[in-house]
Amino acid sequence: MTSHLPVLPILIPLFGALFMLLPPFAGPEKYQWRRFATLVLMLLQISCSVSLMLEVIQQGATFYALGNWQAPFGIVLFADRLAVLLVVLNGVLGLGATLYAFAGIDREGKYFHPLLQFQLMGINGAFLTGDLFNLFVFFEILLIASYALLIHGGGKQKTLANVHYVILNLIGSSLFLFALGTLYGTTGTLNIADMALRISQLSAGEQVIAKAGGLLLLIVFGLKAAMLPLHFWLPRTYAAASAPVAALFAIMTKVGIYGIFRVYTVIFGEQAGELADMVQPWIWPLAFLTIIVGAIGALASPNLRHLAANLVVISVGTLLIAFALRTPEATAAGLYYLVHSTLVTGALFLIADMIGQQRGKALDWFVMARKVSQPALLGILFFVAAMTVAGLPPFSGFIGKLIILQSAHSAAEMLWIWPVILIAGLISIIALSRAGTTLFWRYTGDGDKSQLQTLSRWQVSGAVLLLVASPLLVIFGAAVTQYTDAAAAQLHQLQGLFEVMNLQEAAK
Questions:
Q1: DSSP notation for 180-247
Q2: Count of H-run helices and E-run strands, the chain
Q3: Do 343 and 476 meet the contact criterion of CB atoms below 8 Å apart?
Q4: Entry's PANTHER family (predicted)?
Q5: CB neighbours (10 Å) of residue 433?
Q6: Residue 376 CA to chain centroid, in angstroms?
């Protein structure tokens, strides 16, 4: 059974989603059945993912060949520390979003839970696949599910945001196919490990074509990750989505970041000859500009959902800096920060929705409105989320930013990285302080108490589940950083990848 663990995080949501389209789960009146099934599916996914993580820790990286067709010819899944960490993260984030949706958002459409499962399946597959073509396939699965989830519940704003989102991603998918065709034409394979072996053996003419394909991939991953100048879709899209969908979308940008780390470390890494680190000159300025634009967007945000979306953009820029440093130490720091930022920004979208529910028509816009009916509970949740996402001690954001800053060793790196990250953190504090002051202290009166909405236990439990990860990342910080150190070393050590894929003979 353990030999099939790598494929279970994909199969469980796939078959779970299909079953929920059939009786006794189909039909608007069967929502309780769908909730029960979804909860069981989420717990199963997390259990399998944690089991896979424990096996990878004990036994090392592993791969799964579908139909026993071996690499580089068959469809293979590759589970190393990096992949399983992100699969576990996806499961926890999905559980938080699911619990929040149980408060009633899932009843706004009868296909909410099946679509959620399809999206989780696509994200898990993108993290686990061992070849670029199946990365494209899983990208499409998660995108198709996200198109439907974004418009869940209907509305003009959601429709408008969805049209832009679909068009952009269709363009991105087309570029992805062009990139795959270009790279396959030069290397003769799309298996990531096999490409890493062949890329340094290309002729001068083939290197030019492969470089074009690699840069096209950077555009695709940059679009998914919301890297400048391809970030403009994110604030509007995330702000328009329903709260649990926006929370789950917090990991969508990390799929693009994962693609950058995996492809440009393994295929176009140090061993790639003339194509080694080919995107690094591009990543440095784009990372800084992404942070700067995200910080400006945070200051200009008209409501808490836009602010949370722009904080996602800042986190993307910070992760790109960790990638640009090109050391295992920086990669490890980036992985810690990735886990922290994904969970806290997901929680912030849920908190924004809860605050909006209690402020009447003003929702979460930064204007005077009626006082929230549960200020103590919402205030504590907002305060913890704000402190965490801004990077203040003693929360996980502080540790995440600190270890990224420590991974910059040269004077030039420190001169550029330290001011940008610290000033972005200061701007985040200012933006969040303005938001908290307006939302909790500027009110017109108690208003009509007959219209007050009490928060559901499902809503609070979903937000708390994501927020509690921050103190846990601090309490177990030594164990987590030890894990991320090992994950980064595994990513940068290609010989281990070749051995797992049984390509060591070709590597000699």
A1: HHHHHHHHS--BHHHHHHHGGG--HHHHHHHHHHHHHHHHHHHHHHT-TTS-THHHHHHHHS-HHHHH
A2: 22, 2
A3: no
A4: NA(+)_H(+) ANTIPORTER SUBUNIT D1, NADH DEHYDROGENASE
A5: 12
A6: 30
Residues 246-261 as b/e (b if ≥16 CB within 10 A, e otherwise) read bbbbbbbbbbbbbbbb
Hey, what long-range contacts does 421-425 have (CB within 8 A, 24 or more apart)?
421/291, 421/318, 421/321, 423/295, 424/291, 424/292, 424/294, 424/295, 424/314, 424/317, 424/318, 425/390, 425/391, 425/401
Helix (H) or strand (E) holding 63: strand 62-65
CA 294 to chain centre: 17
Does a cis peptide bond (omega within 30 degrees of 0) precede residue 393? no
**CB neighbour burial string for 480-504, b if at least 16 within 10 angstroms, e if fewer:** bbebbbbbbebbbebebbbebbebe
Indicate the DSSP class of residue 264. I
On the CB side of 346, how many CA atoms lie within 13 Å of its CA? Answer: 38
Helix (H, G, I), strand (E, B) or coil at 448: coil
Q: What share of the chain is helix, strand, coil (3-state, %, to 5)?
A: 75, 5, 20
**Chunked mean pLDDT (size 10), the chain, 508 residues:** 85 92 78 89 94 93 83 84 95 94 85 92 94 92 90 79 87 93 92 90 91 93 88 84 90 92 92 87 93 94 92 94 93 94 94 90 85 89 93 89 91 90 93 92 69 82 92 92 94 86 65
Threshold 0.90, pTM exceeds: yes
- Which candidate, 376, 375, 119, places its Cα nearest to that of 247? 119
Structure tokens at 276: 């080694």
Amino acid type, 469: A
Q: Which of 206, 205, 204 is nearest to 195 (CA)?
A: 206
Kindly provide the residue ranges of all beta strands, DSSP E only, lying in 82-203, ordered along the sequence: none
Which tokens is 316 given?
A: 């993307």
Identity of residue 427? I
